[in-house]
Amino acid sequence: MVLTLYKKDTSPPSRSVFMTIHALNIPDVKFVDVFLPANEHLTEEYIKMNPQHTVPLLKDDDFLIWDSHAICGYLVSKYGKNDSLYPTEPRKRAVIDQRLHFDSSILFVALRSTVEPLLYAGDKTFKPENLAKIKAGYDFMEKFLTAPWLAGDEVTLADICCVSTISSMNEIVPIDAETYPRLTAWLKKCSEQDFFKRGNAPNILLFREMIKKKLGQS
Ligand SMILES: N[C@@H](CCC(=O)N[C@@H](CS)C(=O)NCC(=O)O)C(=O)O
To answer: GST N-terminal domain: which residues (predicted)?
Structure first.
């Protein structure tokens, strides 16, 4: 097996894959940095591997797969000792899939539209309408969090994928514990997990520094 992950440390979807790799204890992954400001994701060679030119991208021998949610699901199916992070039981799987699609279509879209104008258009402040989208994401999460974990009694890919986005949003719009008690408790619980400490925490600091720099605060 030769596993290569094309990634960017500050990228939330890349961090979902880092956390999954740690949660599954997959050894010997080769990590390749893709420097987006230098358009390394737009080279002919990269586009041949991933026509959507996003990070993360996983290469497993001759198999290529992109989109963090698809990558994480593949890693559990192929390298997990069991299916606990992504159960095959239809109803459990359906609830996790709903959360994963929610991350793709609501949370990450809100985060990306908030951050990109700073990263690539030279904006020095966040647009209020984008900050409102982040708060709307928090509102939904607060309602979803009726069990110990985001998709039930056990930690799953729903937690891993959503927490990489939520922990990044928290750097932009700090989560208010009074308004969002369940979300606050869930984020704390996630941050106590070994996979979070190894795969997300150090890179959140890099994300924080990147944002501060773009806001002219460091
Ligand atoms: N839904 C995708 C989103 C990936 C994504 O948008 N990644 C950003 C970096 S955080 C990227 O590659 N941007 C460059 C581009 O889209 O050209 C996933 O979960 O992997």
So the answer is: 1-83
pLDDT digits (tens, 9 = 90+) for 142-195: 999 999 999 999 999 999 999 999 999 999 999 999 999 999 999 999 999 999
Q: Does ligand 1 have an atom closer than 6 angstroms to the CB of 16? A: no
Q: Give residue-wise pLDDT tens across range 96-145.
A: 999 999 999 999 999 999 999 999 999 999 999 999 999 999 999 999 99
- Protein residue with its CA nearest to atom 4 in ligand 1: 54
Q: Which residue has the higher pLDDT, 2 or 135?
A: 135
Answer whether 210 contacts ligand 1 (Cβ < 6 A): no
Q: Taking the domain 3-79, which CATH number applies? A: 3.40.30.10
Residues in CB range of 2: below 8 A, 6 or more apart: 30, 59, 60, 61
* CATH 1.20.1050.10, applies to 90-214: yes
pLDDT digits (tens, 9 = 90+) for 34-52: 999 999 999 999 999 999 9
Task: State the angle between helix axes of 157-172 and 128-144 in degrees (0 to 180), rounded to the nearest 10.
Answer: 140
d(CA 33, CA 102): 27
